[in-house]
Amino acid sequence: MDMSVAKAGRVIASPYARRLAGERSIALEALSGSGPAGRIVAADILSFVAQPTGSPIAAQNVAPCAIAATIGLENVYALLSHLCKAGGPFELVDLALRAAECARAEVFAGRANLHEGVALEVGLSKARRQRVFANATGMSLTQLHQNRVENGAGDEAEEPALLSLRIAEAQKLRMVAMPLLQGRAMRLAIDYGRVNAECTLFFDAVQIEEEDAVAFLVHFTAGIEAPLRLLV
Asked: Is 36's pLDDT higher than 90?
């Protein structure tokens, strides 16, 4: 049994979920957990807090909104080729992570958190797992790459994050709608080819202002199309 499960009589909950519940004076016994074996996770606390109290208008805003952009990859591929010739092990996903982190820092600078305690971190989706990159603003591209490679096998899906990033080689079919992952206010899907990348940003309009979502995608696009700024 998970060591976070306490003695008899106590519900199963992650440590972070217990802290959130304590901060909000929420009784864990009143919740149903969505985690494995009914475990209460942070998303259960946040969704409980965000439940509308008799307002049918608020309930209509739970479906994510989406905005999309086509991004040219010529410059980023040229930079990757130059870095690889110089002995760098970098991949497109490293620059995409860096661009997402820079856009996050640019748009949400100075904010400790968002609506209902959503943290300002970037998570990378891979093989049904999440890797959350905390404090990535101060990392160099080399440190970011090493962090991704060395810790990529772990699953931090229960850790708070603003955004989940999914990057995959383009197929003949594209996803035009995707659900937001638990505990994430935004989800950025990137389908890349030899020339362009099709990017779709899904976001929860209850937690993210439309202007902030647009600004995030604009800054992300600028970072990929002028990637030298990502090395600073």
From this structure: no
Residue 82: pLDDT band (50, 70, 90) is: very high
Q: Say how many C-beta atoms besides its own lie within 10 A of residue 89's C-beta.
A: 11
Write out the residue range of the structural domain in which residue 88 sits. 65-231
CA-to-CA dists, residue 206 to 51, 99, 167, 177, 217, angstroms: 11, 24, 25, 18, 18
Tell me the longest C-alpha to C-alpha distance in the chain.
61
The pLDDT score that the predictor gives to residue 52 is 45
Q: How far apart are CA 199 and CA 166, in angstroms?
A: 10
Residues 124 and 190 in one domain: yes
What are the distances in angstroms from CA 92 to CA 75, 89, 155? 11, 10, 21
Determine the pLDDT at residue 117.
45
Residue 9 lies in a domain: no
Domain at 222, CATH number: 3.30.559.10
Arithmetic mean of pLDDT, 206-226: 93
In the block, tokens 């800054």 appear at 219
- Cα–Cα distance between 160 and 118 in angstroms, integer? 7
Between 176 and 69, the higher pLDDT residue: 69
The answer, as to whether pTM is greater than 0.85, is: no
At 58, list the tokens.
Answer: 């608020």
SS (H, E, C) 113-172: CCHHHCCCCEEEEECCEEEEECCHHHCCHHHHHHHHHHCCCCCCCCCCCCEEEEEEECCC
Strand partners, 4: none
Tell me the two tokens of residue 144. Answer: 């970011």
* In a shared domain, residues 72 and 159: yes
